[in-house]
Amino acid sequence: MSSTAVVERSILLDFFIQVYRYREYLRQSVQRDLKIRYKRSVLGYFWTILHPLGMMAILSVVFSQIMKIAVKDYAVFLFPGMLAWNYFHSTTMMSLGNIRANARLFGQIPLPKYIFIISLVSSNLINMLLAFVPLLIIMLVLGRPLTPAILFLPVALLPLIFVTIGVALLVATSNVFYDDTLHLCEVFLQALYFLCPVLYHRDMLPKSLLDVLVLNPLFCQIEFIRGLFYDGALPNFEIFSINIVGSLVILLLGLKVFSVSEKKFLYFL
């Protein structure tokens, strides 16, 4: 094994060790974040369920009734992919100001600076998991079977979580040095949304285009999660394994860029 591979492996291993070491801080931070987020809201945590449910209802009507997309039980088809995309999108956008927002704590709390990003990723993950509850209710109403494949969800979410952390670290770091990052992220995420199979099935795409789109890690990750609920099927082991490796590469890239840049943060904040 080359020295570069050893270093990269140690970076990832240290990351997971640090996340476990500061798990109590993360737990308290996530609880505090969720309380603050819904403190002045009349419906509170119910917005976690109502917001994606409302978006799903609107998109289902538009695409299944108006645009006549021929997908059976389109609401069940749409909802898992929409939840996965919303998790990635909201976390990425919220991470832009994360470093600036927590800069005053850097010298006060002796912990890795990326823990603040992990706290954000974790609180949004809780929101996403709660939003799966109305999906299960919709499946029961429509007579869709709740198969044992759904129990694989925690594993199926791993590559999505790793990619989200990696991208969040990259954009959070970039936003410290370049204010244009916000505008670039908005454009990039808008384009990426239509390159992900949230609204459509892969069978609707020409093979030449599909061969390119599957290079987007989120493409397969959305299909993994949808497959558990809509098809009642586990992901293909080989494709899932490749996706796990690819998502770890993105996580590693985020960690390396963040670690190289964090010493300069105080000069730009």
Write the layout of secondary structure elements.
Elements: H1 3-21, H2 23-37, H3 46-66, H4 74-95, H5 98-101, H6 115-142, H7 153-156, H8 158-177, H9 181-194, H10 207-213, H11 217-231, H12 237-261, H13 265-268
Task: Please describe the structure with a list of short key phrases separated by commas or semicolons.
269 residues, mainly alpha, 13 helices, 0% strand
Sketch the major β-sheet. Answer: none
Class by helix and strand content? Answer: mainly alpha
How many structural domains can be distinguished in the coordinates? 1
Percent helix, as a range, is over 70%
Strand content: under 5%
State the end-to-end distance: 39 Å
If you had to describe this structure to a student in words, what would you say it looks like?
This protein has one domain (3-268). The protein is mainly alpha-helical and 269 residues long. The model has no long low-confidence stretch (mean pLDDT 85). It has helices spanning 3-21, 23-37, 46-66, 74-95, 98-101, 115-142, 153-156, 158-177, 181-194, 207-213, 217-231, 237-261, 265-268. Helices cover 74% and strands 0% of the residues. It is built from 13 helices and no strands.
Quick rundown:
The protein has 269 residues and is mainly alpha-helical. Helices cover 74% and strands 0% of the residues.
